[in-house]
Structures are given as structure tokens and as C-alpha cells.
Amino acid sequence: MPGQTQFKIHDSENYPIEPIGGCEGMRVILRCIDNVAATGISILIRGEEGSGRKFLGRTIHRKSGFHDRPFVIVTEANIEEVLDRWEKRTRLIKGDALFIAEPEGHDDAPFSYGTLFIDEVSSLSLSSQRRLLRFVQENEPRGKDDLSDLLTYRIIASSARNLEQMVEDRLFREELFYRLNVVTLNLPPLRDRGGDLMQLSDYFLEKYAREYNRKIDSFSSNAMKLLLTYEWPGNVRELAETVRRALLATRSGVIEKKTLTLALQPSLPEAGGLFKLLVSEYEKRLITDALSRCRGKLNKAARLLRMSTRVIAYKVKKYAIDYVKYRHL
Questions:
Q1: What CA–CA distance (Å, rounded) separates 221 from 198?
Q2: What are phi and psi of 69, to 5 degrees?
Q3: Is pLDDT of 273 > 80?
Q4: What strands lie across the sheet with 115-118, from one edge to the other?
Q5: Alpha-carbon span 255 to 222, nearest angstrom
Q6: What is the pTM for the complete model shown?
Q7: Which of 146-162 are b and which e, b meaning 16 or more Cβ less than 10 Å from the residue's Cβ?
Q8: 142 in a structural domain
Q9: Does 72 map to a domain?
Q10: CATH value at residue 324
């Protein structure tokens, strides 16, 4: 309906049913998924930005008892509407006389009951966390027999941040953390996945060649060396977009190193952004120094820098600062 949030359900991209690759870290994750997918218990997926947390959530959904129900992606932007609709629907199903029915013909199908994937749960406000906690408490399945319950959802949350530290700094609700952290899957960054990188590169090359009807089926040996030596700070997401750009720029049947290098450039700072880069580096150094002096305590570092704890938490996330290591200095 006009003016309503359109919840993102079942991405239409042609993803494989399981993550590609066979490194030890991924094998551990897949074994764990096979053990817990059918149970309906809450799962927390941890990993860097772009490492594939959302895709892993989708894999769990497809292997679960909820596979024939929607996979709904919940973010900071739409969680309040999601929870509002849940409360209304709960009252309707339970026969609450105070429930005011929505207009006849209202299409509530996109929010029928299935898997809720909380994308970057650490970004939620404390008030949204409180409402989410109540949601989890009232809708958590108790076992396989509960999967048919009309009020049951499967909760999968993801985070790139250190939630334990956020709990200690009172930026994340402790009870919610423990409710979501029933099973944890630690997704390794692409740089630690060894030979998976080439399997993923070949997959994306084949995928985009088919999508754009291009007869390009391989990388040159020098291009492969570049793929293997680049650090991939943006992980699988960056790899996918780099391969897409390189394929579109290639005029032969092979992607060469020069083309791949140019395709990587959008990931690097623009020449005109040198001033911003220098300012960012200086700001990052100030925050790092403050965290070192305060032994990783965000609230103390915030006072030292005369900024709020929420702001410094945002900056720590922005610059990917591992402040926990300073706790042991």
C-alpha cells in the first residue's frame, strides 16, 4: 500500500543454497547450521562488514522449519514498524477486543510469520532493544513442535561489533544479548578463507557473465595474483562488486590485472579527498590514543575527548578500531 514500508523478503538474486568454499572456519559453521537450523532457536552471526552475514542467515532460513515462510530483513530504519505490526497481529490472533482491525483488503502477507533477520543489531537504540527483548521473550520457540505456532518467529541477529563490550559500556541490553546469543556463528573475513577466495571469484565471474551476457570465463595469472594478495577490507561484498566492474570493463575473454586494478580503485580514496583522508586519520589516531590511555573504556575515553559515549562508539565502528585489546595493556 502507498506510504507503507516494503519489507525486504527473499532477495531475488541467484545465490547458491550454501556458502561457497571449504576453509576450516566455514566447515565448522556449516556443521553447526546442520545441527541447529531445524530447532528454531535464536542465532547470532558475527563477522566483519561485507563478510556474508545476511547470506548465512538466508541459508539457515532455507534449512529450517520456516523455509516456506518469509525471510524478513529488519534494520534500524524499519524495526519500530515491524514491532508495531507484530503487536497488532498478536492482539488480533489472541482475540483482543481492543484490537482495531486494519481496512478490508489490507495486504499483510509480507509480514506473515517466518524468520526475522536483525541486520546489525548493535545499531538499534536502547528503546528499540527493549521492545525487541519483549518480542524475543514472547515469540521464542521452545522446540520443533512450536514451529507451527502462529505467533512464532525465528530470530537471527547479526553484528560486526563487540557486543560484550557494548553491554559493559551500557550501550546494549545484557538480557537481550544473552537471548540472541544462544548459538553464535563467527564468520571469518575473506582474507582468512584461503582458497575460498578463488572459488568465490570464479562464482561471481560466472554469475555476472551470465547476467550481462558476456563471454568472459577466466582471470589472467597476474590478475589472480592480485586477487590473492589484496586484503579485501570489504570482504565478499567488495569482491563481488570488483568482479562485476572488471567484467563490464573487459573487452576480451579474460580479465587482466590492469582491468582488475582499475576495478579496485573505487575502494580507494579519491585524489580530491586527500584532505578528508588526513582529517580522518588524525581523528582515528586521537581516538586510538585516548582508548589506549583509558584501557579500552569507551566512557572514559569519551570524557577525555569531550564527546558523548554514543559518538565515540560510532567513531570506533566507523574506523574499525579494536578497542578491546587495550583492556589488557
A1: 12
A2: -110, 165
A3: no
A4: 71-74, 115-118, 154-159, 43-46, 183-186
A5: 10
A6: 0.70
A7: ebeeeebbbbbbbbbbb
A8: yes
A9: yes
A10: 1.10.10
Residue-wise DSSP of 136-203: HHHH---SGGGGG-TT--EEEEEESS-HHHHHHTTSS-HHHHHHHTTEEEEPPPGGGSTTHHHHHHHH
Pair 249, 278 in one domain: no
What does the pLDDT read at residue 1? Answer: 35
Statement: residue 151 has pLDDT above 60:
no
Alpha-carbon distances, residue 255 vs 205, 224, 247, 249, 258 (angstroms): 9, 9, 7, 9, 8
* Residue 178 pLDDT exceeds 90: yes
Per the listing, cell 519483549 goes with 134
Work out how many domains the chain is built from and give that number.
3
H or E element at residue 255: strand 254-255
Who wins on pLDDT, 287 or 21? 287
Evaluate whether 125 touches 13 at the Cβ level (below 8 Å): no
Alpha-carbon distance 318 to 276, whole Å?
A: 14
Say if CB 46 and CB 54 are below 8 A apart: no
Q: Residue 151 corresponds to which cell in the numbers above?
A: 505467533
User: Residue type at 301?
Assistant: A
